[in-house]
Design goal:
Blueprint lengths: L3 E4 L3 E6 L9 E6 L6 E4 L1 H9 L1 E5 H11 L4 H17 L3 E3 L1
Antiparallel strand pairs: 1-5, 1-6, 2-3, 3-4
Helix pairs in contact: 1-2, 1-3, 2-3
Length: about 100
């Protein structure tokens, strides 16, 4: 939670939505090198990954994103942390 991470340079974020929609219906982070994995994300995880630029600690990012989404920070952490670990293991995030 104290680590600083950033999204790997070969990752792109794809999203689809209907015109005029409040938010995307489908968000996918996709690798363009290596095994070319894809990870479907929800709004919470997408917000956390999108903010991972190496500047803030992961715990701070989760708290801020949870606040923006008006979600409980502890519940958000419990929900997103296993997926962040997967993103780290599969190379979507790298240590700064």
């Amino acid at each position: 939670m104290a680590g600083r991470w950033k999204v790997h340079d070969d990752i792109i974020c794809e999203s689809t939505s209907r015109p005029g929609a409040a938010g995307p219906e489908h968000i996918v982070y996709r690798q363009h090198t290596g095994l070319c994995r894809a990870m479907e994300v929800d709004t919470l995880l997408g917000g956390v990954l999108g903010a991972c630029d190496g500047e803030l600690a992961l715990g701070t990012i989760i708290e801020v994103v949870a606040s923006i989404l008006e979600a409980d920070a502890d519940q958000a952490t419990a929900q997103v942390l296993p997926r962040v670990r997967t993103a780290l293991r599969e190379g979507f995030l790298v240590r700064c």
